[in-house]
Amino acid sequence: MVKERESRWKIRVLQAVLLLGALLTSFFLWQNRPVTPPLLIPEALRGLLVPEPKQLTSFDLVDHFGKPYRLQRLQGQWTFLFFGYTHCPDVCPTSLSFLAEVFEQLKAHPEDLAHAQATFVSVDPKRDSTEVLKEYVPFFHEKFLGVTGTTQAIDGLAKQVWAQYQLSDEVDEEGNYAVDHTAAFFLIDPKGRLYAVFSTAFQRDPETMAKAFHLIRPRVE
Question: What is the Cα 180 distance to its own chain's centre?
Fold first, then answer.
């Protein structure tokens, strides 16, 4: 009986020693685990990059040449998307002029310019026909393209990139009305993902924005 108790006691002591050893080993391994260094984001890109690039899904619009403008048109190139309308009195022409200056700055790096395109998405399909867009958009830059579509189709793309707009209910005697809209540039990468957002806070200096794009582009291609 005594020997049996001693045997059980020894087994329990051995189990405790093994458990303690396992705990110590696990702690040692955890302390010495390889740590993945944090993603280093250049100062110029902080506040621009989307934390997790968002893959866009299909949409069906038409460009100012009357050709289909679908998700495939965003793949293989870096695309600056801007939502607005041609009757916009100030924000749209100012923003498109600014983006045109950015594209001029990109000439310093031909590879950047070769992989960049810009699309002006009209949120006012009632007044912005393809003919109107064809006359309005290229005026700012030859690489700019205007697109439109049904309200449902426009909403389908706008919601994917978090762009918002609202048509005013107040219409003047000539049928004019205002449209409130997001004034940001949404950068889509060659894989068709929302990759960065240039809010109005980053639309002050074309050279700085061009340099930011120069830093962004090699991260995916």
Answer: 21
Neighbour order of strands in the sheet with 60-63: 49-55, 193-198, 185-188, 78-84, 116-122, 144-148, 60-63, 68-70
- CATH number of the domain that residue 160 is part of: 3.40.30.10
pLDDT along the chain (221 residues), means of 10: 48 42 38 41 71 95 98 96 96 96 95 96 96 98 96 96 92 88 96 94 88 88 60
The residue to which tokens 């439109």 are assigned: 148
Q: Closest Cα to residue 148, out of 199, 86, 95?
A: 86
Neighbours of 18 (CB within 10 A): 10
Same domain, 101 and 56: yes
- CA dist 186 and 199 (Å) reads 8
